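Long-time lurker, first post.

We've been arguing in lab meeting about whether fe (ii) ion would sit comfortably in this protein at all. Half the group thinks yes, half thinks no, and nobody has a model to point at. So I'm putting the question to the forum: if I give you the sequence and the SMILES, can you give me back a predicted structure of the complex? Inputs are below. Any interpretation is welcome too.
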Amino acid sequence: MNTSNKTVIFGGSFDPVTTAHVSLVRQLSARFGRVIVMPCAVSPFKTSVSASAAQRLDMLNMSLSGAENAEISTFELDGPAPSYTYLTLRRYAREAGELYLAVGSEMVIELERWKNVDEIASLARLYVVPRPHFPLNAAMRGKLDRLFPGRWEEADFAGETGSSSEVRVSFAMGRPAMYMPEGAARYALGCGLYGEYCYVNALYAEYGMKRKRIDHSYSTALCGIWLAKRACVDMHKAITALLLHDIGKYLTKEDAEARGVVFDGRIDDMPLPVRHAEIGAEILSQLVGIKDADVIEAVRWHTTGRPAMTAIEKVVYLADYIEPLRDFPGVDELRAAVEEDLDKGLLAALKNSVSHVGEEIYPVTMRAYEYYAEKQGENA
Ligand SMILES: [Fe+2]
Ligand SMILES: [Fe+2]
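Top reply:
Settle the argument with this. Predicted structure of the protein with fe (ii) ion, as tokens:
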């Protein structure tokens, strides 16, 4: 057991607790004398949580029971919502020796939005744990130096994959313990939690999706979650578009029309390999009843791209291109480019399509390539 007088607070909505949280707490326990796990009432950045406070606490308790110098505090749950970190730190600064606040590196993106960040920096040192796909790059370090001057440090270990969004996709996959401790996953299933995307399976069956395509859709969704987080895209919209982007894959234009879809004339000019995106967008809009234009357009442009794509369009296009099941020459270089910078990755992907398809390239893809090449100062 660590006997230092350092206390660390690790907060979050824990909706639900994930295996990544459990491993993080274990790592913190080895480095700090006291670890306070702090589920919040409602984070100022989340408009809702789907499990009740009691359910979130139950799942935390059953998952963290072995960590001896870690305790779960109900300080925020007992207080008014939303929970503000500076108020929690004020409370613990009085009794702690040296106080730290642990955050995953993905949180650095939204650090300016924290209320009273100056006071937070005066009350606690920030302990930043690098998370997969969110390395502390120069811009993030610069921001930390500005907001927490001399008051932050990088953890000497890396966090694991697995966020509450990934949990929701894994529940749709029928693999609830993929990112959750087993006991908590069983508990969540018993309470009927986190099943909001299970409906996609009925749609996959209805539109004749084959097993391989379904696995690709899940894999695209899991890959797109970190892209969406990086691009600050609404996560629910992103997951919906990612899971359903290939819903038109096994229907011809005529099949879709027989089911009641009405197309405008554009589809007849599209080469067959890109038609499924248009068919999918219209199925989702006209038959499934998805009215969100951001979602529909992300599905519509997922194969071809287009000039001036929205953030969610980029996320779906790129996730579809580089998801882990994809295997083609150059895919690893492409993944590295996306990790470094989304727009850089987008240009590399468009360039790859243009050179791969050659003369037959769909004009919109060519225009998208030229648009991004010019924007990034590269000669098309
Ligand atoms: Fe597709
Ligand atoms: Fe796809």
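For your lab meeting: The first strand starts at residue 6 and ends at 12. The beta strands are 6-12, 34-39, 70-72, 98-104, 125-129, 152-154. Whichever side wins, do check it experimentally.
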